[in-house]
Structures are given as structure tokens and as C-alpha cells.
Amino acid sequence: MGFIQRAFLYCWRQKLRSLILFLVLTAVATFVLTGVAIESSANEAAKNIRTSVGGQINLAVDMSEKNLVTRQSQWGYDKEYVGDPITDEILAAIREIPGVVGYNSVSSPGIFAAAVNFKYLPAVINMGPTKYGANSAMTKTMFSEKYSGFTSGKLKLVAGRHIVETDRNVIMISKELADYNNLSVGDKLQLYIDYTDKIVEREIVGIFSGTEGTGENALTVASRPGNQCIVDAKASEDSYGEEYSGYSSLDIYVEDPVDIRNVYNRIAEHPLIKGKTFILSIDSEEYETIANPLESLQSLVRTLIIIITVVSLAILALLLTIWIRGRVKETEILMSIGVRKENIIGQFVLECLIIALIAFGFSYPLSHMTADVAGNFIMRQVVDASNLQNFDSSELVEGDYSEYFDRLSGASSAELVKEIEIKIMPEYMIWVCGIGTLLILAAVLIASHTVIRLKPKEILSKMS
């Protein structure tokens, strides 16, 4: 009788042993398959985040004392920037740099203006320094769709369209302000610019929601979010004069955060940038905030797979050692009739592989039931451990025009990934079968070593 037939017969006769081995191998295969699926899904999620979030480089004018001069005006003494401006020519050059997928300029506050042919939402103090009453701050941007208030979901466009780079003399207002003054898209607002003592006219191109219920008790008109409008990037130039042309800062969007350093170097070495009074910096905080938990999850799962493999090897080796030592007489008889040691070991291995094949098959549907639960549970633990989800914006400096807290955007950090979609792909079974087979081979060799290395006479003497 060949060892293959003996292996099948032994598995059938030893039903309890086969059941125990089946349960152990099913658990091992399920854990490994789940781990591989979680690690692969986390890797895929990280790749998707890299393309969806991207990286960001900030180009800003250097406002240090060496680039400022003090000049007298009708308002007293002001410090004026006399360094290099960020011009439209620089924008055109940056647009052509490989790896750059877009840019935006946001200045908050961009301009201050009083209402002429409409009224601001009331505050506790409604008086102002101008002949038309209180000023309100207005955010200046090239692309309002990329403004943090909209990207964070705090603000939503409810009518009209977003502001784009080519717009001039346009404005977006809150739904609160529109309802208060019975305004709609296409209406024109008159704003009084106290600095130049002139009235400018701006067409409403969009109305947004998200400020409702956030400023009824605001101290001043300017501090009520519903009064903080959004204007085009050329608003300063149109309101204050040609000397205010150009941009004070520029957010440059990079397609892949991994390539952000190379893009940074290309920008820094560009003739229009190099040697000028600019500050160039990398901002990958949003990507890192989201991606770090995923990377931690990948590392944790790899460690768990290694631990599971080692523990499984120890358990299998222990079980097989006990069982094989109980088969000393069978081994002695087989060796005495001339069965080679290789065939005996092959029989032991085949017995385990027969059970393993069935166990691996059961592990596939079982992993579908456990992967999502296990993956998202581990993901939440990783996020909790990082303490990032406990970020409290109330700890930031809150106030009018604070650089640390934007009342209008209401956003100060990226949304964290707390759940990922776990997919069990058929090709993952290759990993399970490979790891499982290696475990069985190693466990059988360890378990059978003490018996197989003995000669038949030595086996008989130990039995006696």
C-alpha cells in the first residue's frame, strides 16, 4: 500500500485528530487571509488618498523686516512690503512645472468693505468707522471651490457657481445675508472702501450655506460668519489700487505627496523664484493626518501575521509531536518492512495537507464575515492610539481673522480615515496556501525528527 493511500485512510480513521487539525488550520488560514486582506486594503486606501488628497507647497512673500518700509499715510504710519510680488507670470510658470496639478491663493481677510445698497446681518455692536457704517472682512481667493470652507464640507454652494481665476468684480455671499436682504444670483452689491474712499460694484455669482446659527451673538459685524463674503483674487487691486496687485501667498497642489520634494526643488530652482524674496515650504500635514493611521495599520497587520505564523507553527509542531510519538510502533513496522523514511515523512505531510486543503476552503467564506469587522476594529484602535481624532479646535486661538482659526471655513484639520473597505480577493489564497504549506512542512519536520532519526532497534528499545 502506497503512502498516499495510507494517508487518506489514516485521516478517515482518526476522525477526532482530523477534526482538531481541521479547526486549528481553519483558524490559522482565516487569520492569515484576513491579515493579508487588511494589509492589502490599507495599502490600496493609502494609494487612493495620495491621489485624492495630494500634497501642497506654499509660496509666500517674505514679510520679514528687511522687506518692509515704513511710510506715512492719511491713517498714520504703515509698513509696506517692497519685495518681489507673486505675479501672474509666476503663476503661468508654476502651472507648467511637472507634478503640479493646480494652485490657489487665499487671503483672509482680503479686503474690508462697508455695505452701501444692502445691510449686513446685525451684531451686538453695529456701529462702524465709515460713513456707511461697519466694515466686514472678505476672503479673497482664485478658486472658491478649493477654499477650506468648501473642501471641509462646512460650506455648501446652494445657488450660482464658484469663483474662478479669471473672474473680476464678483462676490459670493451667505444664504443668511441673501435672505436678510432679499438678494439672489446676478444682483449687484455696492461696497464702500474706506481706504480709498470709493464705492465698488460686485456681482453676486454664488450663494453658500453653512453659516446659519453660528453668529447671532457676534460682538461685531465683522465677526459674524454670515457677513464674511468671498471675493475674487483681484479684489485688492480693484479696491485699493494697482500697488496692491499680485498675491501674498500661493498654495500649489502636487498630484503625489511622495513626489512632493522633487516638485519643491523644481519650483525653488525656477528663474522666476530663485533668489527672490519668497518663502517656499512644504505642507503635507493633511495627507499625513489621514495616511499615518493607514501606515500604522499596515505595520501592525504585518506584525500580527508574523506573530500568528510563529504561534501557529508552535501549536502545530506541539500537536504533531504528540501524535507522531504516539505512532512510534506504526513507524517501526513501516521501517522494518523497508519503507523509506522519506515516504513516512511524506505520509505525515500528506495527512496534514489533506486536512489543510479542506480548512483553506472553509477559511475563504469565513474571512468574508470577519475581515470587515476585524479590519475596522483595528483601524479604530490605531486612530484612537494616535489621539488625532481627539483634536479639539477650541484649544486654538479663536478670534477675528486669526491665522489659527477661520470662522468662515470652520476647518482646521483633515478628516481622518476611521474605516476602510476590506476585500477578500481569490488571489490572496495563494498567500494562505503558501504560508500554510510551509507551516505544515516545518511542523512535520520538527515533530518527526526525534522518531525518524532513530533506527528500528532503537525504536523498539525505547518502546520496551
UniProtKB/TrEMBL annotation:
Membrane topology type: Multi-pass membrane protein
Pfam families: FtsX
The species this protein was found in: Clostridium thermosuccinogenes
Top-rank lineage group of the source organism: Bacteria
ABC3 transporter permease C-terminal domain segment(s): 304-454
UniProt keyword terms in alphabetical order: Cell membrane, Membrane, Transmembrane, Transmembrane helix
Primary location: membrane
Protein name: ABC3 transporter permease C-terminal domain-containing protein
Transmembrane segments: 20-38, 304-324, 344-364, 428-452
Entry's localization field: Cell membrane
Keyword Chaperone: no
GO CC annotations on file: plasma membrane
Molecular-function GO terms, alphabetical: transmembrane transporter activity
